[in-house]
Amino acid sequence: MWVKKFDKMHSKVKRVGYFLYEKNYLNNFFCLVCTDYGKLTKEQLEAARRVIRRKLKKKGVLVIRAFSYLSFTKKPLQVRMGKGKGRVEGFVCPTIPGKILFELRGVPAAKATEALRSGSQKLSLRTVIKSFKETYN
Q: What is the reported pTM?
């Protein structure tokens, strides 16, 4: 569901069920997987990305699987009811349990877990680090 940059969303996104891992992955990669329902702002995702890249010192491949596309609006303080919907305040990424947020490839296991753990501290949801060592068909 892609929208233009400043369109206002008038309906909520349904977040039901668990996210199924996609298949056809290569060997040995590490993921930061969300375990809660919730929303992540684009600032949180960017802060986590910066910390992960800083820990890895630009080695390995970092894939960001979460994108903030859902806009939310807010009216200014001390404004009376009515007069339409408020201005677009920011963008969020809705998450469900099992959604992969970040992937790391080409990095040793100790370094990958340390980087993803420090990146997860910047997020407002509970996450877990998973490693996939075999190829899925």
A: 0.79
